[in-house]
């Protein structure tokens, strides 16, 4: 039985494949591969080797393959992550992304002016990322790399924390690689501690897809993630809106309190380089799109509200009619004609 990362052994049942830690509130997989099986020694046969990116993601998990992802992630999650990065740390800064997959986020960060590089487990993916985006990527795990302690400003871990067999050790190492005021930028599934497995199944909850017990070894809650980093001396944690907020959480965490950069400072930093200007153009476009979508949504909501009121009024009219049914037929006809003209006024406007 896999114990909780926090050291607690006697876990409570949660689902057929997960237990829950009553002490910290983490879901712990009881069906995972061994720590050795999670390494990539043979790229063709190992779990996180080449096939993870080509067949497993597509066939087993229903995701687009790495080719499609390398295009689609850029204007979507990568842009969302970049906004949070800019909010807390301006370029230029030394950034490492662990588990960078096809490398599009590394590429976007470099475009914005960061000295960004990435790490991946599969040599095939590293080669793919280097060729696709022309960015520096190393074959991991990070434990094997020669990175100077206290040399990095930011380490990004997107959908990585939940895969780690020893999150305490890996996060301790990451914090050691950071400068004193460095920060981790993390996206991970969010276990909400009031969730019950049978209720999730009943409601077909989005979080069910995160219960991938062979690879998601620890599913943290906001409380347990906070506790993990508190134990490692990184007490300053800031939760940001996650792009997939119905099942993820997104946060930055640091040993030092972090300052928030004003939007004018962010814009000035991006305007300072030709490539940064292109990134700013993407962010501007995304902002305009989001504003338009919000307006359309508000408009649709008010239309629905009006229609709902009409239906309610029509129901009331029908009730009135039923109540007057015993009266002469002339009365009913009169009422119908009133409804008709009232609806016509509502639909076509005017006072007629
Ligand atoms: Zn625990």
List the main descriptive attributes of the protein structure presented here:
4-stranded antiparallel sheet; 352 residues; 16% strand; Rossmann fold; binds zinc ion; alpha/beta; 2 domains
Précis, in short:
By secondary structure, this protein is α/β, with parallel strands linked by helices. The chain has eleven helices and eleven strands. The chain has two domains: 207 residues, 3-Layer(aba) Sandwich (Rossmann fold), CATH 3.40.50.150; 63 residues.
Can you offer a commentary on this structure?
The chain has two domains: 34-187 and 220-272, Rossmann fold; 286-348. It contains eleven helices and eleven strands. It has 352 residues and is an alpha/beta fold. The strands form two sheets. A seven-stranded mixed beta sheet has the order 6-5-4-7-8-11-10, with helices on both faces. A four-stranded antiparallel beta sheet has the order 1-2-3-9, with no helix packed on it. 45% of the residues lie in helices and 16% in strands. The termini are far apart. Helix 10 packs antiparallel against helix 11. Strand 2 and strand 3 form a beta hairpin. The model has no long low-confidence stretch (mean pLDDT 92). Residues 4, 6, 8, 21, 23-24, 26 line the site of zinc ion.
């Amino acid at each position: 039985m896999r114990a909780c990362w926090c050291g607690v052994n006697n876990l409570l049942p949660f689902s057929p494949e997960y237990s829950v830690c009553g002490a910290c509130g983490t879901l712990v997989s009881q069906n995972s591969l061994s720590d050795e099986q999670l390494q990539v020694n043979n790229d063709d046969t190992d779990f996180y080797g080449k096939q993870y990116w080509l067949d497993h993601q597509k066939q087993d998990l229903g995701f687009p393959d790495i080719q499609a992802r390398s295009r689609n992630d850029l204007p979507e999650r990568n842009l969302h992550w970049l906004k949070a990065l800019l909010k807390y740390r301006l370029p230029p800064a030394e950034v490492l992304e662990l588990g960078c997959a096809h490398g599009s986020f590394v590429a976007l960060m470099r475009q914005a002016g960061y000295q960004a590089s990435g790490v991946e487990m599969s040599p095939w993916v590293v080669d793919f990322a280097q060729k696709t985006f022309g960015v520096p990527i190393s074959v991991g795990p990070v434990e094997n790399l020669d990175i100077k302690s206290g040399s990095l400003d930011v380490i990004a871990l997107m959908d990585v924390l939940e895969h780690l067999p020893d999150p305490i050790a890996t996060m301790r190492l990451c914090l050691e690689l950071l400068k004193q005021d460095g920060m981790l930028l993390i996206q991970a599934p969010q276990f909400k501690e009031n969730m019950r497995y049978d209720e999730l199944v009943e409601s077909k909850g989005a979080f069910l897809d995160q219960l991938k017990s062979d690879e998601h070894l620890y599913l943290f809650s906001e409380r347990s993630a906070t506790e993990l980093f508190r134990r490692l001396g990184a007490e300053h944690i800031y939760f940001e809106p996650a792009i997939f907020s119905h099942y993820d959480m997104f946060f930055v965490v640091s040993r030092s309190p972090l300052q928030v950069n004003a939007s004018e400072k962010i814009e000035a930093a991006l305007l300072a380089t030709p490539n940064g200007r292109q990134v700013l153009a993407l962010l501007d476009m995304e902002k305009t799109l989001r504003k338009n979508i919000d307006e359309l949504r508000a408009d649709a909501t008010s239309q629905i509200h009006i229609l709902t009121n009409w239906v309610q009024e029509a129901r009331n009219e029908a009730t009135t009619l039923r109540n007057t049914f015993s009266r002469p037929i002339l009365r009913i006809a009169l009422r119908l004609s009133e409804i008709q003209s009232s609806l016509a006024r509502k639909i076509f406007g005017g006072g007629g």
